[in-house]
Amino acid sequence: QVQLVESGGGLVQAGGSLRLSCAASGRAFSSYVAGWFRQAPGKEREFVAAINWSGSREYYGGSVKGRFTISRDNAKNTVYMQMNSLKPEDTAVYYCAADASEVLDQPTYWGQGTQVTVSS
To answer: Of 17, 95, 107, 116, which is the most exposed, with the fewest CB atoms less than 10 Å away?
Structure first.
């Protein structure tokens, strides 16, 4: 079993930056693909970014590419997402996710979410 706990959300002005963290329990996490999804009020959950187990491959949703960067530190069992040039449309609850497979299309493990609010 893997448990995921997000942190780092908050309120920021447009153009600002935030760094989200996802701390995982369980030694197996270092072999899992991991990433982030988000859900804004009234909208479907959206893929944001993913990273493979070694950190050698990164994947991004089109709306965040070039502004967000995902990374991981397997020694700390933690995945990060640096969010720069934030826009009001980035406002959402951000969820960390992980899976034992090589892809993150239907993650098995989810965090509880952290709110990110970007003011204009």
So the answer is: 17
DSSP structure string for 52-116: -TTSS-EEE-TTTTTTEEEEEETTTTEEEEEE-S--GGG-EEEEEEEESSS--SS-SEE---EEE
The predicted structure's pLDDT at residue 26:
84
Supply 87's token pair: 């826009």
Looking at residue 3, its amino acid is Q
Q: Report residue 9 CA to chain centroid gap.
A: 11
Nearest to 112 by CA among 98, 95, 99: 95
Name the band, by pLDDT with cuts 50, 70 and 90, for residue 24. very high
pLDDT at 109: 96
Q: 47 and 110 in contact (C-beta within 8 Å)?
A: no
Q: Calculate ∠ Cα 27-31-34, nearest 5°.
A: 100
Can you read off the two tokens belonging to residue 83?
Answer: 């969010």
Amino acid 27: pLDDT = 80
